[in-house]
Design goal:
Helix content is 51%, strand content 9%. With 98 residues, the chain is mainly α. The chain has a single domain, classed as His-Me finger endonuclease fold, CATH 3.40.1800.10. The protein is globular.
């Protein structure tokens, strides 16, 4: 069983899959995302060879459909989330001040 401080890779993998399913991915998509995460060599967005996070690579996914898109580093995952959620607002802000 997984506990908060557990380092068992199999338990941690199960938890990551469970969390992705909870967030809207199908079980198959969650498995594919985890498999891609395990073999990732670079960020699909910026090309970094480092995940730049102690938690490792992130599985980017569409929050509306749950569809897995790609493996990305931590900063790109955060940027993608902001752009996806607030992109129109930021564009309006920039247009109004240009």
């Amino acid at each position: 069983m997984y506990s908060k401080g557990s380092k068992d890779p199999r338990a941690m993998r199960r938890v990551r899959i469970k969390n992705r399913v909870y967030r809207g991915m199908s079980r198959e998509q969650a498995e594919a995302a985890e498999q891609a995460r395990e073999i990732a060599t670079h960020c699909a967005c910026c090309g970094s060879v480092s995940p730049r996070s102690v938690k490792g690579w992130h599985a980017d996914h569409d929050h509306e459909t749950g569809r897995f898109r790609a493996i990305v580093c931590h900063p790109c995952n955060a940027y993608i989330g902001v752009v996806e959620t607030h992109g129109a607002m930021v564009r309006r802000y920039l247009e109004d001040r240009t």
